[in-house]
Write a structure and sequence with these properties.
single chain, alpha+beta, Thrombin, subunit H, 2 domains, 6-stranded antiparallel β-barrel, 6-stranded antiparallel barrel, 33% helix, elongated
């Protein structure tokens, strides 16, 4: 208590000045209509700005929630559409080929593009149904494959990784190859395994092909350069990736409904 009194005593002149200023300001505002009007206007403007800022924050979090709900709804719709679009029945309806994929919405909370081996961290994990080996895509293209998971998070091996191998094919053709990445340009990759009798030119689109990780026909990239070395039976193809790997936010984790059975039959390295 004594320390408080000493503090106030040392600063009594400052406190007195502040009190007198407040009294003078109050008198000016209350007994001067013009000054009162200016003061009230400024107060209103100040409160309006505070309210607007508060509303902007509320709207931001509201939009984040709404966006999350939309992502979940899109994931559900994608799953349903894939089930329908891949159902092929024979005339006697005894054989049905189904390539159902389940989609789980998630967000990238951390990612890299400047390393030789790049990863992403997603905000969903095993509690949401994500498993190691699941594919990760966006609306624009393929992102990578889930490497490991915890209950709440998933670590994804980006397609910008030296060990990444993404199955892909030339759009409209049956030639399947695989996409690899050579550091360090995040915009481009290489398509390997396409035989020289395939029709390849600059501008040819690439999509996912025969795979148990990614649904068929999802965008992968576009051919920007084609080379065929003398004596080689396969093209060396440079592609631009469809997805902007430097700006990944919302993603979908996809899984074939029979992935475990197919991997057991085809081998763990299948993609």
């Amino acid at each position: 208590m004594r320390e408080l009194l000493d503090f106030l005593g040392k600063r009594s002149y400052v406190l007195l000045f502040i009190i007198l200023e407040a009294i003078a300001l109050s008198l000016i505002i209350n007994f001067n209509a013009h000054q009162k009007l200016i003061f009230e206007h400024n107060v209103d403007v100040g409160f309006s700005k505070v309210k607007a800022a508060n509303q902007s924050v509320s709207d931001y979090f509201g939009l984040r929630k709404a966006n999350s709900e939309i992502m979940q709804e899109n994931a559900s719709l994608r799953s349903e559409l894939k089930i329908q679009s891949y159902r092929l029945s024979t005339p006697d309806d005894t054989t049905v080929f189904r390539a159902d994929y389940r989609y789980i919405s998630a967000r990238s909370i951390q990612s890299s593009i400047g390393r030789a081996d790049n990863f992403l961290l997603l905000d969903q994990g095993s509690e949401s149904g994500i498993e190691s080996g699941d594919g990760v895509v966006t609306e624009d293209g393929v992102i990578g494959i889930v490497h490991s998971v915890t209950s709440d998070y998933a670590r994804v091996m980006s397609c910008l990784h030296r060990e990444s191998r993404i199955s892909a094919k030339l759009d409209g053709q049956d030639y399947n190859g695989y996409v690899i990445w050579r550091p360090y340009d995040h915009r481009f990759a290489r398509l390997m395994g396409i035989p020289k009798n395939a029709r390849v030119s600059v501008g040819t689109k690439l999509v996912t092909g025969n795979s148990i990780i990614f649904p068929e026909g999802h965008p992968v990239g576009e051919v920007v350069d084609v080379n065929l070395e003398a004596g080689s039976n396969f093209y060396d193809i440079k592609i631009s990736l469809s997805a902007d790997m430097s700006a990944i936010q919302a993603v979908y984790v996809c899984r074939h409904k029979d992935k475990d059975q197919l991997k057991m039959l085809l081998g763990e390295g299948s993609n």
